[in-house]
Amino acid sequence: FSSLEEHRYHETLVHPVMLSQVNPKKVLILGGGESLAAREVLKHPSVTQIDIVDLDTNIFELAQNNKTFIEINHNAASHPKVNLITEDAFTFLGSNTTQYDVVISDLPDPNSEATAKLYTKQFFMLAKRALTPNGCFITQAGEIYFSNTAYSCIVNTMRTVFPHISELHSYVPSFGDWGFVIASSAAPNFNYKNAAVFDQTKHLSESAFTTLFQMPLDIKVIETRINSLDNPIILSYFIEDWQRWKPDLVGSGI
């Protein structure tokens, strides 16, 4: 992330899905070990528990003890409401028995076999199981213009699991026009009017909130195959998308 603009990403990742709930209490963050998403979640006073699941113990160490990280995350990693859990997100969801009002997936792009599984139908089914009946799930969904096929695959795969899907996006200068997808079993009711959280945000405001859900005319969800554990097709889509725009980066660990 870039400390100059990460608030654009994290405010969009967190506040729309939090405002889909009335007084959300339990929140699960998958990834996000640097605790920037947790920083935003803590701006909602109804929250009593934030579980952060990240595979990287080093990022937790930085989030809690590195001066620069602490300044950026406002010491969220050491907040008494926050629990740091070192585990693979897929494995955690497989054994989890807690139900959360909000589940936030802040995981890496599907640029490898290991990360492609985090956007499969099976993963989304586990995320759905972790929600309360009216709870909402959000995932970051990558760059929506340069990687539109991979983005479309995420949306299409989520539609096979959740009856209600909302697409949204935010421009993050270092990364591009970034997509997010909110999913739920019950139709979300976004309680953004006069929301107190906008007194604490740098990017989002009440008037800007609805523009997040206005997708550009040249961004369309196209037909794709469904991403699954036995057929992680999103990896091919991701590589092909970036090959089209940045052929020099393919094969170099993008």
Textual characterization of the structure:
The chain has 254 residues and is of the alpha/beta class. The two termini are 15 Å apart. Helix 3 packs across helix 4. The mean pLDDT is 95. The chain is built from ten helices and seven strands. A seven-stranded mixed beta sheet has the order 3-2-1-4-5-7-6.
Number of distinct helices: 10
Secondary-structure element pattern, one letter each: HEHEHHEHEHHEHEEHH
**Total beta strand runs:** 7
Helix/strand/pairing class, anyone? Answer: alpha/beta
Strand content: 15-25%
Rg from alpha-carbon coordinates: 17 Å
Low-confidence stretches: none
How widely separated are the two ends? 15 Å
Largest sheet: 7 strands, mixed
Helix amount, in percent?
25-40%
Gross morphology is globular
Taking all residues together, what is the mean pLDDT? Answer: 95
Give the strand order of the largest sheet, numbering strands 1, 2, ... along the chain: 3-2-1-4-5-7-6
Features of the shown structure:
globular, 10 helices, 254 residues, seven-stranded mixed beta sheet, alpha/beta, single chain
Please give a quick description of this structure.
With 254 residues, the chain is of the alpha/beta class. It has helices at 6-18, 36-41, 57-65, 67-73, 89-95, 113-116, 121-129, 148-159, 206-209, 233-245, and strands at 26-31, 49-54, 82-86, 100-106, 131-143, 164-172, 176-184. It contains ten helices and seven strands.
